[in-house]
Amino acid sequence: MATIDEELGALERDIRQLKIEYDQYFGGGRKRPPNEIEWRIDLVVRKYGERSGDMKIGQRFRFNNLTQTYAKYKDIFRKKLRQKEEGTIQRHFGAAAKAIEAERAKAAEAAAQPQQAQTATTVPEAPAAFRIVCSNPDQETEKVDRLFQAFLEAKRSAGDEVDKLSRAGFVEFVRKKTKDLQNHNVSTDVEYVVETIAGQVKLKALIKA
Q1: Which one, out of 12, 62, 120, 166, has a CA that is 20 to 30 A from the CA of 160?
Q2: How many distinct structural domains can be found in the chain?
Q3: Which helix (H) or strand (E) holds 81?
Q4: Which domain, by its residues, includes 195?
Q5: Distance between CA atoms of 65 and 54, rounded to whole angstroms?
Q6: Overall pTM surpassing 0.85 (yes/no)
């Protein structure tokens, strides 16, 4: 029997595959929408939506992020399906579809090049920063867990490896950092911030005034 983490991993892969196959369907490369994958995803979403109490904090955090992504995709797919049914979306088949997709890819790449040249004036939109205030990590374990999961998710989104990151090592870092800042300041409240800057994930610790 699959574990919760294994099922969440399969859910994440299915959501990615669903988007790929819907893109192929709307581009004319598939004859039918990927209903089987969508049905499988809906089963898992309903299952853990009803059993959220069985999940740990980190698993709930990951599940919520996945369901939000899935809901966003479904909204996009519904609108495109409506356009397809109403005949307001172009359909392309076979070799023509592949040629059109190749041209779209080239156009997207060409459009990206000027944007890269204008990095001095155009800043890519970064995910919202995660913030939490902590004064006693040993007693505020839930806060530390949320901070750790936010750090992991930011790393994953940035394409960084997270296999070598351990919760124990992270907790020890937060404990030492909090104590160090408290020893050099009057305030005991330390704000931790997880944010992504220019594709790099940063974890900052700031003393609260």
Answers
A1: 120
A2: 2
A3: helix 57-86
A4: 130-207
A5: 17
A6: no
